[in-house]
Amino acid sequence: MPTISIVDDDESSLEAIKSLVKSLGFTVEAFSSALDFLASPHVHATDCLIADINMPRMTGVELHSHLVRSGYLIPTILVTAYPDDGIRARAMAEGVLCFLSKPVDASSLLGCVRLALQRTEPGKDHS
Q1: Is residue 124 domain-resident?
Q2: Which of 6, 7, 37, 84 stands 20 to 30 A from 46 (CA)?
Q3: pTM tops 0.85
Q4: Is 71 within the bounds of a domain?
Q5: CA nearest to 51, candidates 109, 122, 93, 2
Q6: Residue 69 and residue 63: Cα distance in Å, rounded?
Q7: Domain for residue 113, yes or no?
Q8: What is the CATH number of the domain that holds 53?
Q9: How many domains does the chain have?
Q10: What is the torsion angle, in degrees rounded to the nearest 10, for the CA atoms of residue 97, residue 103, residue 42 and residue 123?
């Protein structure tokens, strides 16, 4: 079963996305910060990452860039309550798979997750 990791500092948003992804039948790991995710053993087993953009200490864009620099090619979906075309363009240029606005539309998220899982083999080490 593919593992989807969700990183969002907003507890209600984290729980909503977590519930949605679980309802689609995926294994879910949830983290309240990018640093918590990076310190976890789940980085290696994550098949798709869903991260909020606006988080303290490390944004979703910074998290994605850090993972890429570290050799982790995890398909990443960024979500935000504050869409910004400049940030979107930068994130997509850096290889982010999808950029979604909150509240997240279930069908759009599912499409992005399916696309992400086509790019990786579940359970594989992404480093």
Answers
A1: no
A2: 84
A3: yes
A4: yes
A5: 109
A6: 10
A7: yes
A8: 3.40.50.2300
A9: 1
A10: -50
